[in-house]
Amino acid sequence: MELTDELYNTMIHRDSRFDGKLYIGIISTGIVCFPSCRSRLPKRANVRVFGTLELAVQAGFRPCKRCWPDHPQRTPPDTELVVRVMAILRADYGQPITLSSLARAVNVSPYHLQRVCKRCTGRSPAQELVTVRVEQAQKRLRDSTASIGDISRQVGFRSPSHFAVVFRRAVGVSPQAFRSEAGGGR
Ligand SMILES: [Zn+2]
Fold it and tell me: Which member of 33, 37, 67, 117 is catalytic?
């Protein structure tokens, strides 16, 4: 099928009006997307248009992992979403992570992410992130000789004093006390 200006415009503006009606095969990546996919906009020359997902798959395109054109509700199943979020938190806990950046990474709204995460795990993404960071800090306090300031930075806290407050709230003792009780730091 032909790529019309109208269709390409909906791709530029992430407009979802053709989602589920037309499918965009991207030759350079081998991926098939909904027209509104938030991945990088392909060049016109790299676009093939299909009327059904099956035709695109037969032509050798794989369904996109961001816009999930092979999933009827368009939203990844909740547990799948939470699994992806937890994988990001475990990989990137040392980086600055916000609810918005996390939501962007998994292509849902911050509101949706917050709600799904709370429903599935009983905790918000921010609470999950703190848990991951504190666990990583405990491991380093026990197993490494790095200073507490370095550890606080490595696990993503903006300052050692903020780290100390959060750590004490989660673990019940200060990082120093935890380290000496665990026999770490030597
Ligand atoms: Zn896509």
Answer: 33
Work out the number of other CB atoms within 10 angstroms of the CB of residue 114: 17
What is the set of domains in the chain, with CATH numbers? 5-63 (3.40.10.10), 78-126 (1.10.10), 134-182 (1.10.10.60)
Give the Å distance between the CA of 33 and the centre of ligand 1: 4
From ligand 1's centre to the CA of 31, what distance in Å? 7
69-108 residue pLDDT tens: 777 555 556 777 888 899 999 999 999 999 999 999 998 8
Q: Is 117 a catalytic residue?
A: no
Residue 172 phi, psi dihedral angles, 5° rounding: 100, -15
Ranges of the chain with pLDDT below 70: 72-77
| Beta-carbon neighbours within 5 Å of ion ligand 1 | 33, 37, 39, 64, 66-67
